[in-house]
Every structure is written in C-alpha cells, then in structure tokens.
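I'll show a sample.
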Amino acid sequence: MRRYHSEKQSRRRLAGSPRRRAAVAVALAAIVGTAGAAARGWIGSRGQAAPSPGAPPLPGVAAGPAWESDLQTGMIRAGAARKNLLVLFTSADADDAPLARAARDLAAARAASENHVLVRLDVGTYRASPASLTQAAIWTDRLAIDALPCLVWFDERGRPFFAVRDGRTTDVQAPMGLARDAKARRDSALNEAAALSGVDCAKRLDSALSAAGDDAVAGCYPDVMAEVVRLDGANAAGLRTKYGARVSARAAERAVQETVYPLIDAGDLRGAADHLAKLERDVAVPPRQRQMLIAFQAQLRAKLGAAAEAVALADRAIAVDPVSDEADKIRTLRTQIAP
C-alpha cells in the first residue's frame, strides 16, 4: 500500500488486480486497527508477520493434509523437513478455477504432501487473518501475480523456483515435473558457477536465474543478480545491461527500508525527504520506482508545510508516466496538497 493512498481511493480500487487487492486489504485492515505497522510502506513490507491460525476449510475437499495459511510457518516446517513448499495464491472468487481445484485434488490425494509443505494464501479478502493478508500482499507484488489462482513452488530455504500462472490449468501433474526440472537446472547451474570466476561464472549464474523461465521468479534472487552485475562489470556478456536496473531498484528498496523509514520513525521528515532525493538522483531505478520515489518526497514535503515544493514534486512524478495507475494516485495526492 503506497503511503499516499486515501481510504476512499483504496476502497474504489478493491476490485483491481491481485497485487492491488492484496495491498488494499492489508491497508484497510490497518485502518480499522487489525494489521498495524505490518501494512506500512510503498516499496515493500517491514519486518516479519506473526504466525496466523490454520487456514479455513477448503470447499469441496475431504479430510487430507492440512494447508498452512501462514507462509513463514510453512517455510519453517519445510526447512525442518527438507521439503519444498507448494503455495496456492487464491481468493474466494478464484477457488472454483480449474487450477485451484486441481491443486486441492492433488493435495487431498496426498500426491503433493509427501514432498511438499502445502500453503494457501488468501489474497485480498477478509476471511484471512491480517498476517496472511500481509504475506499475500508481499508475495503477490514480489512475484508479479496479476491473476488468481497462481501456484508457486518454493524450496526448503524459502526461494521460489517455478510458477503456474494460468488459472485454466486442469492438471498439475505435468507442472510438478516441470518444477522438479527447473529446480534441478537451477541447482546444477549454481554448483557449476561455484567452480568458475569472472564472466564464465556470471553466465552460469544467469542460467540459474533463467531456469524457471519466469522473470518475476528470477527477481526473487537479488543477491545472485547483484553478483552477475559485479562479475560482468564491463558488460562483456550483456548481463550488466540485463540485470543492472533491477539490482539498482533493489538497492533503492533496501535504502528506503533501512534508512528512510527509521528517519521517519524518529520524526526526521526532512532528513527522510533529503535521502529520497539523493536516491532519486544517484541510483538509476526503473521509471515506476522513480515515480514513486518522487511521490514519496512530495508527501513528506507536504507534511513539512512546503506545499509549493510538494506540488512541484507531484507534478514531476506524474510526468514520469502520466498514464500509469500510480499517476492517478499521485493526482489524488496533489489534490490533497493543494485543493
């Protein structure tokens, strides 16, 4: 949930994409005092959510293996048992989709539970706990989940390695095999990279990132991407170009989490705004993130009473991409600053 959303605007956008619905659900929970600080932030989530109760019963499923509703708990279980996680991102509206039914049927037959811990995250509805909503918001954004249901495989260390995004999928047996192959290719490439150096190592790490054939899944390995960029510093293999912007974006995200938010918590809004301005100036981030960095500055300057500066910042943020969803939100912010 971006800091410059209003409650009215959030409710108006509730029927949007899964990423927006998940974020809005968390934000509205925060408004009524149930999600607390876990809902904060325009660029990610701060801290870990507390474990939530077990998932509600799934429609049409007889007794079978239990589905966790808390991803953190599932990851702990998977690590202890050295199992993968099979995570179903769904909602009340998506529970009857072929992919959701196929996943439940597979789990009920215990075909998946032997080698997986099963986790079900309810996206953007109020039948889930605040902790589950927060986790769903984090991962739908991180994995760029724009349609439900979606099935994602994680390894025992909590790293995603394969995803099925087509809700019309009626049989998950074949994807189970593809997921195993993707993990095997990833692990093989990582092992080979460990014995190499320089650009050769970077190429094998690139192969590991590409194993899932899913760009959003690859984005969940920021440390590997950063190492690829470092090893191909001269761009001899074109990998610095391929991953450089994403590495910069993650660096900016980390700076916001580790520096900007603590300054805000300490009451130093001016220092936070100045740090955001420095990030915008010094770090080459993608346009969408640059737009939000500027908008965040606008909100802070407005709180400091610098309305004219805040309006100018809002106009500059809108100009980055005037037709984006974020631009509409920033226009609302601008109206609030200067009615």
User: Anything to note?
Assistant: Residues 1-15, 23-64 have pLDDT under 50 and may be disordered. DSSP finds 14 helices and four strands in the chain.
